[in-house]
Amino acid sequence: MSSLPIPATSRAGLRFREVVGLFKLRIGVFIMLTALVGYLVTPGPGLGAAQVLVLALSVLLASASAGAFNQYAEADSDRLMARTRNRPFATGALPRTPAWLWLMAGMLALAVAAAWWTTNAMAALYVFLGAFFYGVVYTLWLKRRSSLNIVVGGLAGSFAALAGAAAVDPGVGVHGWLLALVLFLWTPPHFWSLAIAGQADYAAAGVPMLPVVVGAERAARIVYFSVVALVLASLLPVFFGAGWIYLAGALGGGLYFAFKARALAAAPGRATAIASFLASLVQLGVLLAAASIDGAARSGW
Fold first, then answer.
1. pLDDT tens-digit profile of 14-30?
2. Which pLDDT value is given to residue 301?
3. What is the rounded distance in angstroms from the CA atom of residue 230 to the CA atom of residue 183?
4. Which of 1, 110, 175, 226 would you label with 279, given CA atoms 20 to 30 Å apart?
5. 1 falls within a domain
6. Helix, strand, or coil here: 40?
7. How many CB atoms lie within 10 A of CB 238?
8. Radius of gyration of the chain from Cα atoms?
Protein backbone atom coordinates (compact mmCIF):
# COMPACT_ATOMS: atom_id res chain seq x y z
CA MET A 1 0.00 0.00 0.00
CA SER A 2 1.45 3.37 -0.97
CA SER A 3 1.63 6.02 1.69
CA LEU A 4 -0.69 8.96 1.32
CA PRO A 5 0.90 12.37 0.70
CA ILE A 6 1.04 14.69 3.69
CA PRO A 7 -1.26 17.68 3.13
CA ALA A 8 0.50 21.04 2.76
CA THR A 9 -1.21 22.38 5.88
CA SER A 10 0.06 19.42 7.90
CA ARG A 11 3.59 19.90 6.56
CA ALA A 12 3.44 23.58 7.49
CA GLY A 13 2.22 22.74 10.97
CA LEU A 14 4.96 20.16 11.39
CA ARG A 15 7.64 22.61 10.27
CA PHE A 16 6.23 25.26 12.62
CA ARG A 17 6.49 22.84 15.54
CA GLU A 18 10.05 21.99 14.53
CA VAL A 19 11.03 25.66 14.53
CA VAL A 20 9.30 26.27 17.88
CA GLY A 21 11.15 23.28 19.29
CA LEU A 22 14.47 24.30 17.77
CA PHE A 23 14.43 27.76 19.30
CA LYS A 24 12.85 26.52 22.55
CA LEU A 25 10.29 29.30 22.32
CA ARG A 26 8.21 28.07 25.26
CA ILE A 27 11.26 28.40 27.51
CA GLY A 28 12.10 31.67 25.79
CA VAL A 29 8.69 33.14 26.56
CA PHE A 30 9.12 32.17 30.20
CA ILE A 31 12.56 33.84 30.31
CA MET A 32 11.09 36.91 28.61
CA LEU A 33 8.39 37.10 31.28
CA THR A 34 11.11 36.84 33.93
CA ALA A 35 12.80 39.90 32.45
CA LEU A 36 9.49 41.78 32.54
CA VAL A 37 9.04 40.87 36.21
CA GLY A 38 12.55 42.17 36.87
CA TYR A 39 11.45 45.43 35.26
CA LEU A 40 8.25 45.62 37.30
CA VAL A 41 9.84 44.99 40.71
CA THR A 42 12.55 47.63 40.26
CA PRO A 43 11.74 51.14 41.51
CA GLY A 44 12.63 53.93 39.12
CA PRO A 45 11.45 55.82 36.07
CA GLY A 46 9.22 53.72 33.88
CA LEU A 47 10.04 52.89 30.30
CA GLY A 48 7.85 53.68 27.34
CA ALA A 49 5.71 50.94 25.86
CA ALA A 50 8.02 50.63 22.84
CA GLN A 51 11.07 50.29 25.09
CA VAL A 52 9.41 47.54 27.14
CA LEU A 53 8.40 45.71 23.96
CA VAL A 54 11.91 45.87 22.50
CA LEU A 55 13.43 44.74 25.80
CA ALA A 56 11.06 41.76 25.97
CA LEU A 57 11.72 40.77 22.34
CA SER A 58 15.48 41.17 22.85
CA VAL A 59 15.44 38.70 25.75
CA LEU A 60 13.25 36.32 23.75
CA LEU A 61 15.53 36.55 20.70
CA ALA A 62 18.70 36.00 22.76
CA SER A 63 17.11 33.02 24.51
CA ALA A 64 16.02 31.56 21.17
CA SER A 65 19.54 31.84 19.77
CA ALA A 66 21.00 30.07 22.82
CA GLY A 67 18.33 27.36 22.71
CA ALA A 68 19.01 26.66 19.04
CA PHE A 69 22.76 26.58 19.65
CA ASN A 70 22.23 24.07 22.47
CA GLN A 71 20.46 21.73 20.05
CA TYR A 72 23.02 22.33 17.30
CA ALA A 73 25.92 21.45 19.62
CA GLU A 74 24.18 18.44 21.17
CA ALA A 75 22.59 16.79 18.15
CA ASP A 76 24.62 13.60 18.59
CA SER A 77 23.86 13.16 22.30
CA ASP A 78 20.22 14.16 21.76
CA ARG A 79 19.80 11.04 19.63
CA LEU A 80 20.64 8.90 22.67
CA MET A 81 17.86 10.24 24.88
CA ALA A 82 14.14 9.49 24.57
CA ARG A 83 13.24 13.03 25.67
CA THR A 84 15.37 14.69 22.97
CA ARG A 85 15.76 12.21 20.12
CA ASN A 86 12.96 13.85 18.09
CA ARG A 87 14.60 17.28 18.03
CA PRO A 88 15.02 18.50 14.44
CA PHE A 89 18.84 18.47 14.33
CA ALA A 90 18.89 15.03 15.97
CA THR A 91 16.46 13.55 13.46
CA GLY A 92 17.93 15.36 10.47
CA ALA A 93 14.65 17.12 9.75
CA LEU A 94 16.70 20.31 9.69
CA PRO A 95 20.19 20.17 8.10
CA ARG A 96 22.98 20.87 10.60
CA THR A 97 24.97 23.35 8.51
CA PRO A 98 27.21 26.30 9.51
CA ALA A 99 24.55 28.67 8.19
CA TRP A 100 22.61 27.99 11.39
CA LEU A 101 25.55 29.25 13.47
CA TRP A 102 25.58 32.50 11.53
CA LEU A 103 21.84 32.86 12.07
CA MET A 104 22.17 32.26 15.81
CA ALA A 105 25.06 34.72 16.11
CA GLY A 106 23.08 37.31 14.16
CA MET A 107 20.04 36.83 16.38
CA LEU A 108 22.12 37.36 19.51
CA ALA A 109 23.88 40.41 18.07
CA LEU A 110 20.54 41.94 17.09
CA ALA A 111 19.09 41.25 20.54
CA VAL A 112 22.03 42.85 22.35
CA ALA A 113 22.11 45.86 20.03
CA ALA A 114 18.37 46.46 20.36
CA ALA A 115 18.49 46.28 24.16
CA TRP A 116 21.44 48.68 24.25
CA TRP A 117 19.85 51.13 21.84
CA THR A 118 16.46 51.26 23.58
CA THR A 119 17.54 50.96 27.25
CA ASN A 120 21.20 50.98 28.34
CA ALA A 121 24.49 49.11 28.18
CA MET A 122 23.99 47.17 31.43
CA ALA A 123 20.65 45.75 30.32
CA ALA A 124 22.26 44.74 27.01
CA LEU A 125 25.16 43.10 28.86
CA TYR A 126 22.80 40.97 30.93
CA VAL A 127 20.88 39.98 27.78
CA PHE A 128 24.17 38.78 26.31
CA LEU A 129 25.32 37.00 29.47
CA GLY A 130 22.08 35.04 29.72
CA ALA A 131 22.59 33.56 26.25
CA PHE A 132 26.35 33.11 26.77
CA PHE A 133 25.99 31.20 30.03
CA TYR A 134 23.41 28.83 28.57
CA GLY A 135 24.95 28.37 25.16
CA VAL A 136 28.66 28.31 26.04
CA VAL A 137 29.23 27.92 29.79
CA TYR A 138 26.52 25.30 30.30
CA THR A 139 26.31 23.57 26.92
CA LEU A 140 29.96 23.51 25.87
CA TRP A 141 31.96 23.74 29.09
CA LEU A 142 30.07 22.17 31.97
CA LYS A 143 27.26 19.86 30.88
CA ARG A 144 29.55 16.89 30.25
CA ARG A 145 32.16 17.76 32.86
CA SER A 146 30.41 18.38 36.16
CA SER A 147 27.29 17.45 38.09
CA LEU A 148 27.08 21.15 39.00
CA ASN A 149 26.43 21.96 35.34
CA ILE A 150 22.87 23.12 35.83
CA VAL A 151 23.77 25.20 38.89
CA VAL A 152 25.97 27.48 36.81
CA GLY A 153 23.76 27.10 33.75
CA GLY A 154 20.86 28.34 35.84
CA LEU A 155 22.40 31.80 35.81
CA ALA A 156 20.82 32.23 32.37
CA GLY A 157 17.44 32.86 34.00
CA SER A 158 18.97 35.13 36.62
CA PHE A 159 20.53 37.31 33.93
CA ALA A 160 17.10 37.78 32.34
CA ALA A 161 15.77 39.20 35.61
CA LEU A 162 18.84 41.43 35.87
CA ALA A 163 18.30 42.66 32.30
CA GLY A 164 14.78 43.75 33.15
CA ALA A 165 15.86 45.43 36.37
CA ALA A 166 18.85 47.15 34.74
CA ALA A 167 16.57 48.64 32.09
CA VAL A 168 15.11 50.76 34.91
CA ASP A 169 18.20 51.10 37.09
CA PRO A 170 21.63 50.10 35.73
CA GLY A 171 22.61 49.33 39.32
CA VAL A 172 19.72 46.82 39.37
CA GLY A 173 18.66 47.51 42.97
CA VAL A 174 17.91 45.11 45.80
CA HIS A 175 14.65 43.75 44.39
CA GLY A 176 16.28 42.88 41.08
CA TRP A 177 19.17 41.11 42.78
CA LEU A 178 16.83 39.18 45.06
CA LEU A 179 14.71 38.05 42.11
CA ALA A 180 17.90 36.93 40.36
CA LEU A 181 18.87 35.00 43.51
CA VAL A 182 15.50 33.26 43.61
CA LEU A 183 15.84 32.20 39.97
CA PHE A 184 19.39 30.98 40.60
CA LEU A 185 18.18 28.80 43.49
CA TRP A 186 15.07 27.64 41.62
CA THR A 187 16.79 26.15 38.56
CA PRO A 188 18.72 23.27 40.23
CA PRO A 189 15.80 21.59 42.07
CA HIS A 190 13.56 22.21 39.07
CA PHE A 191 15.95 20.52 36.66
CA TRP A 192 17.23 17.87 39.07
CA SER A 193 13.65 16.71 39.61
CA LEU A 194 13.35 16.18 35.86
CA ALA A 195 16.78 14.54 35.78
CA ILE A 196 15.72 12.01 38.43
CA ALA A 197 12.75 11.07 36.24
CA GLY A 198 15.05 10.72 33.22
CA GLN A 199 18.09 9.32 35.01
CA ALA A 200 18.49 6.39 32.61
CA ASP A 201 18.47 8.73 29.61
CA TYR A 202 21.25 10.91 31.01
CA ALA A 203 23.30 7.85 31.96
CA ALA A 204 22.93 6.45 28.44
CA ALA A 205 24.04 9.77 26.94
CA GLY A 206 27.01 10.05 29.31
CA VAL A 207 25.80 13.30 30.87
CA PRO A 208 26.84 13.60 34.55
CA MET A 209 23.60 15.02 35.88
CA LEU A 210 23.36 14.87 39.66
CA PRO A 211 21.19 11.71 39.90
CA VAL A 212 23.60 9.86 37.60
CA VAL A 213 26.59 10.82 39.76
CA VAL A 214 25.19 10.43 43.29
CA GLY A 215 22.12 8.25 42.75
CA ALA A 216 18.42 9.07 42.83
CA GLU A 217 17.99 8.82 46.61
CA ARG A 218 20.75 11.26 47.48
CA ALA A 219 19.77 13.56 44.61
CA ALA A 220 16.18 13.62 45.88
CA ARG A 221 17.37 14.71 49.34
CA ILE A 222 19.48 17.43 47.75
CA VAL A 223 16.42 18.59 45.81
CA TYR A 224 14.43 18.89 49.03
CA PHE A 225 17.09 20.91 50.88
CA SER A 226 17.56 23.07 47.77
CA VAL A 227 13.84 23.84 47.79
CA VAL A 228 13.98 24.80 51.46
CA ALA A 229 16.80 27.25 50.63
CA LEU A 230 14.76 28.55 47.70
CA VAL A 231 11.67 29.17 49.84
CA LEU A 232 13.68 31.02 52.48
CA ALA A 233 15.36 33.18 49.84
CA SER A 234 12.00 33.93 48.20
CA LEU A 235 10.83 35.52 51.46
CA LEU A 236 13.70 38.03 51.62
CA PRO A 237 11.97 40.72 49.49
CA VAL A 238 9.39 41.07 52.28
CA PHE A 239 12.14 42.62 54.41
CA PHE A 240 12.80 45.19 51.69
CA GLY A 241 9.31 46.49 51.10
CA ALA A 242 7.43 43.74 49.25
CA GLY A 243 3.81 43.55 50.39
CA TRP A 244 1.32 40.93 51.45
CA ILE A 245 0.46 39.89 47.90
CA TYR A 246 4.07 38.93 47.30
CA LEU A 247 4.29 37.21 50.68
CA ALA A 248 1.19 35.14 49.95
CA GLY A 249 2.51 34.08 46.55
CA ALA A 250 5.99 33.25 47.84
CA LEU A 251 4.62 31.23 50.77
CA GLY A 252 1.85 29.48 48.88
CA GLY A 253 3.94 28.44 45.90
CA GLY A 254 7.00 27.71 47.99
CA LEU A 255 5.24 25.46 50.47
CA TYR A 256 3.59 23.55 47.64
CA PHE A 257 6.95 22.92 45.97
CA ALA A 258 8.49 21.94 49.33
CA PHE A 259 5.65 19.48 49.96
CA LYS A 260 6.21 17.77 46.61
CA ALA A 261 9.99 17.80 47.05
CA ARG A 262 9.59 16.21 50.48
CA ALA A 263 7.49 13.46 48.91
CA LEU A 264 10.25 12.94 46.34
CA ALA A 265 12.90 12.66 49.07
CA ALA A 266 10.76 10.16 50.97
CA ALA A 267 10.08 7.96 47.93
CA PRO A 268 12.37 8.70 44.97
CA GLY A 269 10.81 7.55 41.71
CA ARG A 270 9.61 8.77 38.36
CA ALA A 271 6.12 9.72 39.56
CA THR A 272 7.31 11.75 42.57
CA ALA A 273 10.08 13.33 40.46
CA ILE A 274 7.61 14.49 37.80
CA ALA A 275 5.30 15.80 40.54
CA SER A 276 8.21 17.79 42.01
CA PHE A 277 9.14 19.11 38.56
CA LEU A 278 5.58 20.27 37.89
CA ALA A 279 5.38 21.81 41.38
CA SER A 280 8.48 23.87 40.56
CA LEU A 281 6.64 25.38 37.59
CA VAL A 282 3.62 26.17 39.76
CA GLN A 283 5.82 27.70 42.46
CA LEU A 284 7.69 30.00 40.12
CA GLY A 285 4.59 30.96 38.18
CA VAL A 286 2.76 31.96 41.37
CA LEU A 287 5.79 33.83 42.70
CA LEU A 288 6.35 35.78 39.47
CA ALA A 289 2.68 36.69 39.25
CA ALA A 290 2.68 37.88 42.86
CA ALA A 291 5.91 39.82 42.35
CA SER A 292 4.47 41.51 39.26
CA ILE A 293 1.27 42.55 41.03
CA ASP A 294 3.21 43.75 44.06
CA GLY A 295 5.73 45.68 41.97
CA ALA A 296 2.99 47.33 39.92
CA ALA A 297 1.12 48.29 43.10
CA ARG A 298 4.21 49.81 44.68
CA SER A 299 4.85 51.78 41.49
CA GLY A 300 1.34 53.21 41.62
CA TRP A 301 0.07 51.54 38.42
1. 667 777 778 888 888 98
2. 59
3. 9
4. 175
5. no
6. helix
7. 16
8. 20
